[in-house]
Design brief:
With 204 residues, this protein is an alpha/beta fold. Helices cover 34% and strands 21% of the residues. Strand 1 (10-15), helix 1 and strand 2 (37-44) form a beta-alpha-beta unit. The structure holds 5-O-phosphono-beta-D-ribofuranosylamine.
């Protein structure tokens, strides 16, 4: 007879700058017992971001930080402080969910292959901002979303998984974006579930 050692919930740290719908989708899967994970901290460079409000309502530690003087990245010292905060919370997987800054320094070295992002296109197509608009402008008939490891580039890291969605006749940027986001809310928890399963069991 074999005895199964249970896995402890995977400790997630979520970084976001926006409304937090992906954060909520992940939290909902955890609450329903479908994802063996725990969101232990949420961090944002935008103090008024919806993601922080939702986290607080759920009782998750939610911390706003000043990103410093750059527009598209964090100051190296600040990125170091963010990485240290995640380590203090014993985060095992860093989940970027609408985090609007490039990470370059300690977040990549301290969380190598343990930091992932979701992007609203079928990468490598349409990197950067408003990817759903780029898909419409390009006349694509298929759009989608991608979860990938984070590297120093903009949406350039190794692809983990993708979901396709159709572009429908008469789609506006808003309708296509909504369809892509619905796919994101299914894909991101599913990818995180893969990280939950592929790690050693908790020590007894
Ligand atoms: C998502 O569409 C994601 O693809 C992009 O930023 C958006 C974040 O949305 N990286 P939300 O804050 O999770 O609602």
């Amino acid at each position: 007879m074999t005895t199964e050692t249970p896995l402890l919930p995977l400790r997630l740290g979520v970084l976001g700058s926006g409304k937090g719908s992906n954060f909520r989708a992940i939290a909902a899967q955890i609450a329903e017992g479908k994802l063996n994970a725990e969101i232990v901290v949420v961090l944002s460079d935008v103090p008024e971001a919806g993601i922080l409000d939702y986290a607080r309502k759920m009782g998750v530690p939610a911390i706003a930080f000043d990103p410093g003087k750059f527009r598209t990245k964090l100051e190296p010292e600040i990125e170091g402080q963010v990485a240290a905060l995640l380590e203090e919370h014993r985060v095992e997987l860093v989940v970027l969910a609408g985090f609007m800054r490039i990470v370059k320094y300690d977040l990549l070295t301290k969380f190598s292959r343990r930091i992932i992002n979701i992007h609203p296109s079928l990468l490598p197509k349409h990197r950067g901002l408003h990817a759903w608009e780029q898909a419409l402008l390009a006349g694509d008939t298929v759009a989608g979303c991608t979860v990938h490891y984070v590297d120093r580039g903009i949406d350039t890291g190794e692809i983990i998984a993708q979901t396709e969605v159709p572009v429908q006749t008469g789609d506006s940027p808003e309708t296509l974006h909504a369809r892509i986001q619905a796919a994101e809310h299914e894909l991101y928890p599913r990818v995180i579930a893969g990280f939950c399963e592929n790690r050693p069991p908790a020590a007894e």
